[in-house]
Amino acid sequence: MGSTSDKIKGTANEAIGKAKQGIGEATGSERLQGEGVVQEVKGKGQKAMGDAKDSAKEAIDRAAAAAKRAAE
User: Fold this and answer.
1) Are 24 and 36 in contact (CB under 8 A)?
2) Burial class (CB in 10 A: 0-12, 13-18, 19+), 55
3) Is the distance from CB of 13 to CB of 39 less than 8 angstroms?
4) Cβ density class 14-46: b for 16+ within 10 Å, e for less
5) What tens-digit pLDDT sequence spans the chain (72 residues)?
6) Is 6 within 8 Å of 46 (Cβ atoms)?
7) What is the pTM of this model?
8) C-alpha dihedral over 51, 53, 55, 61, to 10 degrees?
9) Helix (H, G, I), strand (E, B) or coil at 40
10) pLDDT number for residue 72
């Protein structure tokens, strides 16, 4: 899975998790609130994974460019 899709899925999971928490709070459902918290945390993790993939790709690209310059 690419970094963009990780970030998109993470954003969606965060939003759905927050919505579940709100609905659970409004209806008094502790189970729904708990599910919402878990889903929101999952979304934050997915977004962090996407950011990490971007950072790794940028570092690899910089290293490759530096190696190419050194070889010239």
Assistant:
1) yes
2) exposed
3) yes
4) bebbeebbeebeeeeeeebbebbeebbebbeeb
5) 789 999 999 999 999 999 999 999 999 999 999 999 999 999 999 999 999 999 999 999 999 999 999 988
6) yes
7) 0.79
8) -150
9) helix
10) 84
